[in-house]
Structure formats: C-alpha cells, structure tokens
Specification:
With about 400 residues, this protein is α/β, with parallel strands linked by helices. The protein has 2 domains: about 100 residues, Urease, subunit C, domain 1, CATH 2.30.40.10; about 290 residues, Metal-dependent hydrolases (TIM Barrel, Alpha-Beta Barrel), CATH 3.20.20. About 35% of the residues lie in helices and about 20% in strands. It contains 15 helices and 15 strands. It starts with a strand and ends in a 7-residue tail after the last strand. Bound molecules: N-(iminomethyl)-L-glutamic acid and fe (iii) ion.
Length: about 400
C-alpha cells in the first residue's frame, strides 16, 4: 500500500520551477499531494483533483511552505576549532599570514588527525542536526582535514557511517585542501601523490562513498596545472570535479572548472569575466559563499549579478568550516546573498534550493514540483520575505509530521 497524503491549510507555497532558470511559482492557498515521500500534485487547494478527496490530510497550520534548503559546499567533519586564531585575526593578522606560520587549515589538520572515527561521527551528527533544524535537508560534505591517507580514509568512513544513519549527504574527496606538512612545501610532489596514490587508494578502500573531488586551486597552494592533474585522476576514478576557485586571488579556477566539465566552481570572489562566460557555456554552477567573505573581513564580494547576466545558474552555500566560515545557518547566507551579492529574495531562494541541488546533480531536490522529494519547510511568518528582512531573527522551520490526521 502506498502512503498518500495531502498537505492542506497552507497560507501559500513558493517553489522554484525546475523547467525555468529563475522563476519562482507562488501559489496562494496551496495544497500538496504526496505519495511515498514524493510530490505527486501541486496547486491551489480548490483545484485538488477528485482522486485525492479521501486521502489523509496533513494540517500545515496556516504556514508558508518552501522546499528544503540544499547546501552544496560544507567542510562538515573536522576536529577542534580555531577560536584562538580568530582573536589574532581580529588584532589584524591575516588569514594568509596565519597559514604561512603553520596555523590555519594546518591547525585543524592536527586536531583532525587526532580525532577517532567515533568522535568524528558524533561531531558530524550534531552538526547535521543543527543544519536540519535550520532547514537544510541535504548537503555536500568534504574531506580535507587529513592531508594524509589514513585520516582522509577515516573521514570517508565517518561520512559513510553518517549516511548509514540516514543523513542525506554527498561526499567530496578533498585530500588536496592544502599542502601536507610531510611534503615540506613541494606542491608538485604533493599533487603527484594525491593524483597517483591517494585518490586511487581512497576510492578503492571506500567504494561508493565519494561522488565528487575537489582541489584548493590558489596562489601558494595548488596551481591550476596541479589541480588539473588531480582532477583528471579523480575523473578517471568516476569522481566529478568541484573546484575551490578564485577565492583569495585570480588563479584561472573558473576557467579550469569549465575546461574540466566540473559540476561547480566555488567561492569566485576574484573570478574573471572570461571565467563567467566559460562557466555559463560549460554549465558549471558558480557556488557563492558570502559567509566566507564576511568572516574573512574581505571586501571582494563574488560578482553574482554579472554571473547571472552571463547566463550562470548561481547557487549559494555556507562553506561551513572552522577557519573561514564557522556558520551552519542558511538564513544568514540568504541574507548576505540579498544584501551583499544583490540577489532578489526569489533569486537567493532559488540559489539555495534548485541551483544548489542541480550542482549536486539531484533533479528531485530544491523544488516542490511533481517528482520532487517531499522535503517541505513550513514557516510561521506573515510574509516569506520576513525570513531575510528580520536580519537577526533565528526563524526555524517546521517539517511535515510523520503521522497523518484525517
Ligand atoms: O573554503 N579554501 C579552503 N578551504 C576553506 C577554509 C578552510 C579553513 O580555513 O579551515 C574555505 O574557505
Ligand atoms: Fe570551502
């Protein structure tokens, strides 16, 4: 027997339309028919087809409904935190300076190498719960704080366990997140080890866990040529590239992502006009992370409007990580998307739902049209724009109850 129910008593429902790039359908007095956890029909309650007349009703309580948020860029698993370095940054020491001193990502690498599988899983589950309470129903999660085989493998094992526990996430292998201390600054040898040795062993040892691979292509980290070599090795193993690109300086990261047919190029504060055109032509999703720009105290906001004009389907993400954006709050990112990247509310909503899901190659997430997973957020506000307008309010969505009422 299939589980059929109809969500009724909604003030309205807003959802991106997967058939159109930036269109948001706004349906007043909406109803949503669900079969086995997937949307079967969407429209005005008054137009509900007769076939649904006797299906159990779920009371939306007069809320506004939206699709669940999708976060396409997080560094979910890491040990420790970086409060100590944060205070030094407030005193004027730059993020790059801390890294040059052996801190920054390297500090988190030390803490992560010292964390057990059980500790990583426990921390990961608490963070996933926090994301879900704030409306994130699916996210991408990277390795990258191991920078050696054993710890990168343990991070993959932790992600596999979180998935076994029912969390909805995609895993990205990022063993080239920084130069590993063992290579003494030899980026070429480090890139070679990642491409030739680590990626094949990590994929073979953890089959089916990672879908994507990533490299921090940045001045003083990995060059575009070294990134290309690692991504080609990843592609040969079935991993789709996502690129940390043009974050602190222009490195040709967006152009590289387009050349590789990457799913996404992420950050892009220093993206070139040619990079934007190349991403649009190659259908690479620019994933913008304004929380990082804010937290690093930078003034170079990613040129979201120019990307949209170039034809890109821009997505938004948190970049949740302990160094450049310790923020697991999608509403903060939506607010920065509107206030700093100059997106309209509808564009920001689409960027954090439909385009985020598309960048992870999920056609059934990020919208509420028939076929979508019924991951519905219920918001108890008078007007949906209040979610960004009341800048400091910690709005929390309600989810559909498990039990139905008739
Ligand atoms: O996305 N750019 C590299 N990685 C992270 C920062 C990681 C950290 O500082 O721990 C980022 O900004
Ligand atoms: Fe990142």
């Amino acid at each position: 027997m299939s589980d059929r129910r109809v969500l009724v008593n909604l003030r309205g429902l807003w959802t991106p339309d997967p058939a159109r790039t930036w269109a948001v359908d706004r349906i007043p007095d909406a109803a949503l028919a669900v079969v086995d956890g997937h949307v079967a029909w969407l429209g005005r309650a008054a137009d509900l087809p007769a076939a649904w007349a006797d299906a159990p009703r779920v009371d939306g309580g007069g809320a506004w409904a939206t699709p669940g948020f999708v976060d396409p860029h997080t560094h979910l698993l890491f040990g420790g935190n970086r409060t100590g370095e944060f205070n030094r940054r407030l005193q004027g020491v730059s993020y790059q300076q801390l890294a040059a001193e052996g801190g920054g990502i390297r500090e988190t690498v030390r803490a992560t190498r010292g964390a057990s599988l059980a500790e990583l899983v426990t921390a990961g589950e608490a963070r996933l719960r926090a994301f879900r309470e704030r409306g994130v129903v699916h996210l991408e999660a990277k390795t990258g704080y191991g920078l050696e085989l054993a710890t990168e493998g343990r991070l993959l094992a932790a992600y596999a366990e979180l998935r076994r526990r029912g969390w909805s996430l995609d895993v990205t292998l990022l063993p080239a997140h920084d130069l590993a201390p063992e290579f003494g600054g030899d980026a070429e040898a480090n890139a070679c080890a990642v491409a030739e040795d680590w990626l094949p062993k990590l994929v073979a040892g953890n089959p089916g866990v990672a879908r994507f691979c990533d490299v921090f292509v940045e001045t003083g980290v990995f060059s575009a040529a070294q990134g290309r070599r690692i991504f080609e090795a990843g592609k040969a193993l079935g991993l789709v590239p996502r690129v940390h690109a043009d974050e602190l300086s222009w490195t040709g990261g967006a152009e590289l992502a387009a050349e590789l047919g990457a799913a996404s190029a992420d950050h892009l504060m220093f993206c070139s006009e040619a990079g934007m055109a190349a991403m649009a032509a190659a259908n690479v999703t620019p994933v913008l992370l304004p929380g990082t720009t804010l937290f690093l105290g930078m003034h170079e906001w990613a040129p979201a409007r120019r990307m949209i004009e170039a034809g890109c389907r821009v997505a938004l993400a948190t970049d949740f990580n302990p160094g450049s954006c310790p923020c697991a709050d999608p509403l903060t990112i939506l607010r920065l998307g509107c206030l700093q990247l100059r997106l309209t509310f509808e564009e920001a909503l689409t960027a954090m739902t439909l385009h985020a899901a598309r960048s992870l190659r999920h056609a059934d997430l990020g919208h509420l049209h028939p076929g979508a997973r019924a991951e519905v957020l219920l918001w108890d506000v008078d007007d949906l724009l209040e979610l960004v307008y009341w800048v400091g309010e910690p709005f929390r969505p309600r989810y559909l109850p498990e039990t139905t009422q008739t």
